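Entry 12.
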Amino acid sequence: MKHVVVILDGAAGWPLPELDGRTTLAAANTPNLDALAFGGRIGLAQTVPEGAEPSSSAACTAILGYDPVANYVGRGAIEAASMGITLASDEVALRMNLVNVADERMASYACGHITTPESRAIVEELAAALGDDTFRFYPGVAYRHILVVKGHDYLVDAQYTPPHDISDKPIIGQTPRGPGSDVLLELMSRAREVLADSPANRARAESGGLPATDIWPFWPGLAPVGLRSFSDTYGVSAAMTSGDSTWMTTRSWSSSAASPPSACAT
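Predicted 3D structure (tokens):
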């Protein structure tokens, strides 16, 4: 028997005046979803338990049958696993966006939806200038990348604000704060200088694109300990695909995987 789990992450949105007060989902033509609802069973499920982060990290973990509290990994580590990055026990993986900050405001959490070739060139420049025994930079897709920090595992206890949560808002008080955050703040300051002199960034600006002014690390995670793979847990093979309007990626879950890889849309 084959099963398909479809997660419409963030599909509803807010009611919009131009849609007569409806959400985009309410206004959409959804014959296939309607057919599934008509022929199936409808109910409510709490996918984010008390005390867990109310995000895709917890909700998708729960939907796949894992306990997002007892089996907590952290989204940075999940995304690192999906890219084939192996973490040591004293390493923290963080999502790292390329962003544009103007007048101390988050002008674009996606750097104007920078293309993958452009962003990879910029992250490679960052790696060449700032990469060392403590910091490793891994280029990803579009504006989404991974920063691995060694020897500062307490960074998982620091506080972070996802850049998309403060679109067009001041960044004052929203940068990493708490245990070890000075390490990241110093790196962000050094990265700002590299980005200001980046040939790849300059070429993007000259072509009319929004340049990357800053890196923004958030969503930390550690390598999971004792977490069984999906195949070992359920005795089936599985694959995951995740995408949005700008990109799509597919990963397979091997029986030897330490954790189920994920490609997150935000």
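Annotation: Residues 181-196 form the longest helix (16 residues). Helices lie at 24-27, 31-39, 56-63, 75-82, 116-130, 181-196, 199-206, 230-234.
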